Amino acid sequence: MQFCTRCLYPSNHPLHLTFDEEGVCSGCRIHEEKDCLDWNERSEKLRAIVKEFKSPDQKRHDCIVPVDGGRDSYFTVHVVKNLLGLNPLLVSYNKHWNTALGIRNLAYMRIAFNCDMIQKTVNPNTLRALNLASLEAFGSIYWHILAGHTAFPVQSAINYRIPLIIWGAHQGIDQVGMFSHTEEVEMTRRYRKDHDLMGFELEDLVQKYPELDQHNLDSFLYPDSIDIANVGVRGIYLNNYIRWDSKKQHELMIDTYNYETTPQVRVFDNYHDVNCHHYNGLHDRIKFAKLGYGKVTDQACREIRLKRMDRKQALELVEKHQHRDTKDEDLFLEWQGISSGELWSYIDQHRDPRAWEKVGSKWHLKHAPIVDGNDNSFSCSYDVDYRVTPSRAPGEDKNTYVLIGKGYVEGQKPSSPPVFDKSGAEA
Questions:
Q1: How far is CA 102 from CA 44, 263, 363, 398, in A?
Q2: pLDDT(415) > 70
Q3: What is the tens place of the pLDDT at every residue in 270-329?
Q4: Long-range contacts: 281-287, Cβ < 8 Å, 24+?
Q5: Residue 197 and residue 218: Cα distance in Å, rounded?
Q6: Rounded distance, CA 277 to CA 392, Å?
Q7: d(Cα 178, Cα 157) in Å, to the nearest integer?
Q8: Which residues contact 265 (CB under 8 A, 6 or more apart)?
Q9: Which fold has domain 38-260?
Q10: Looking at residue 221, what DSSP letter applies?
Q11: Where are the domains of the chain?
């Protein structure tokens, strides 16, 4: 197994990495563009792109923005509404494993930005059947969420005839340098299938598990190319036009809109994915069991590239977090209706042999990154303080799913948006 000499990524990254003669991965090399591109020029290019989609009378929606109660949703809506002056329709796929905090963030978002929002909630029995199939097929409990989150916005664009979809960051660019920012890659069906969906479209999964056909699976179908062309749907990514730094962006949203955060167990980033019980819990344990690294490695690599920590400090954080257990497995097992033994028997079938070997009855990691004379990381100060905000509902039960939340919060009224300059800083 080869590891990048700057960040901590291994060569078995599922999005695929390449390494140069210095052992630095393609993700680190493309990330260097963030420090040399003219982002003011790129921001103006973004304005020129969206200008043709803007309604002259402001009586219709100009674009669609996919959102949830975590990740970069607040910042994306902020850019679209406050910096680009567009009127977005917010579109959300309900992942079913919502935290109460995530539901609150979603409700406050709609009110704080004064936006219309629609949400898709699929029959739980359908999700359980689909989830069991994806567990067996490729050891994933998150496939239905990725499928729904990437299909519903495109379906909505066609149904409401709103051609522009604005996404936050393109994972293939930000993690592995699959494309240069200057290529301005846009949403495609092929990227969705090959990378987001691990090579399986819904049709492929139904062919493998014909019993799924008894369910209504339309929510996970990517629209036909003819329908997409008739509306002229295109999906753009903001990180091609804005220097992406999710830590700084989240902190702007905390200070401006009271975005709510909470401590996480297996990661040090308290801002991302606070809306899902399992993303940084069971889902991350499964990722580690399959690939030999978890979400904390993704976060550490990002911080190395943004020059907020060096490789040695990053390794210490990874070792501190990646072996921690979580308390959400029983919650998932009850929802799915299977035992812990069944769950991990599915996962064991999908362990990467490049990362794992079985000795007797136990699995052992074959390789791990080390710090040595080949370290190409930057010399920098250690600055990864991720803030935890006060809870808006102290004492709430944090061990239950919230399927559907209120669309409003008492005492919260829409207000005039703050004024921001072109860089996104509050004026």
A1: 33, 13, 35, 11
A2: no
A3: 999 999 999 999 999 999 999 999 999 999 999 999 999 999 999 999 999 999 999 999
A4: 281/326, 281/327, 281/328, 281/329, 282/141, 282/326, 282/328, 282/329, 282/332, 283/141, 283/142, 284/326, 285/325, 285/326, 285/329, 286/139, 286/140, 286/141, 286/347
A5: 16
A6: 18
A7: 26
A8: 280, 281, 321, 324, 325, 326
A9: Rossmann fold (3.40.50)
A10: P
A11: 38-260
91: phi then psi, degrees, rounded to nearest 5: -125, 130
172 neighbors 126 (Cβ within 8 angstroms) = no
Structure tokens at 65: 């923005």
Q: HSE on the CB side for 341, CA within 13 Å?
A: 0
- Cβ-count burial 338-359 (b if 16+ within 10 Å, e if not): beeeebeebbeebbeeebbeee
Say yes or no to pLDDT of 417 above 80.
no
Which residue from 371, 78, 413, 61 is spatially nearest to 250, judged by alpha carbons?
78
Cα gap 24→9, rounded to integer Å: 10
In Å, what is the CA distance from 37 to each residue of 52, 80, 90, 238? 25, 21, 30, 14
From the CA atom positions of the chain, what is the Rg in Å? 21
Residue 266: burial class (beta carbons within 10 Å; 0-12, 13-18, 19+):
buried
Q: How far is CA 198 from CA 104, 147, 205, 295, 373, in A?
A: 31, 10, 11, 17, 36
**pTM of structure:** 0.94
| Tens-digit pLDDT profile for residues 243-270 | 999 999 999 999 999 999 999 999 999 9
Contacts of 341 (CB under 8 A, 6+ apart): none
Instruction: Tell me the pLDDT tens digit for each residue of 132-173.
Output: 999 999 999 999 999 999 999 999 999 999 999 999 999 999
| 316 Cβ contact partners less than 8 Å away, ≥ 6 residues apart | none
Angle of helix 340-348 relative to helix 282-291, nearest 10 degrees, comes to 30
Distance between CA 230 and CA 255 in Å, rounded? 42
Comparing CA positions, the residue from 110, 121, 57, 119 lying closest to residue 88 is 110
116 residue type, one letter: D
Question: CA angle 3-269-18, nearest 5°?
Answer: 25
Are β-strands 362-365 and 356-359 bridged in parallel, bridged antiparallel, or unpaired?
A: antiparallel
Question: Nearest Cα to 160, choosing from 88, 221, 57, 93?
Answer: 88
Q: Order of strands across the sheet with 88-93?
A: 116-120, 88-93, 63-66, 164-167, 234-237
pLDDT, mean of residues 118-141: 96
